[in-house]
Amino acid sequence: GARALVAATMAAFDRLDILVNNAGMQHVAAVDEFPDEAWDQLIALNLSSVFHATKAALPGMKARGWGRIVNIASAHGVVASPFKAPYTASKHAVVGFSKAVALEVAEQGITCNALCPGYVRTPLIEKQVADQAKVHGLPEERVIREVILAAQPTKQFVEAEEVAAYVVFLCSDAGRSVTGSAQLIDGGWTAR
Fold this sequence. Notes:
By secondary structure, this protein is of the alpha/beta class.
């Protein structure tokens, strides 16, 4: 699991200075129809793995007096959508966890932030576009604008490279005073 990844990194490099928690999953269903096993799996991956990896990484960061933790949350860490209650709950929890960790290590040269992207163009999203096009009988471009990106005023996907660049900034010396925050990169979604 997450602790094993941290241990493997420590064994290979003798240190871990930057931790980016970026594992996650989604399951869409009404709360009263949400499978219990899907809840358990979603919470384990989206939330518990963040705790376990952070817990394992912090002792070395504290010993060296420097560290950067970036937890990839979601715009759903600050707003909600119907049929995504467990995902929304897990991402809100990641934002809160990030704030608490930041406060605990504020004087130890370690920062902890939640990065909250909107819809990022990934293979998972590309498959959803194709599936939604079939379901709605619409061309993929209309599905992107009217279904997938309905909440994002820019009507553009966030690109993975943009998320990576933001992470690099948060992990740099220029980002040393950014801690305990939920950083939005959501095409204006949460501005409404």
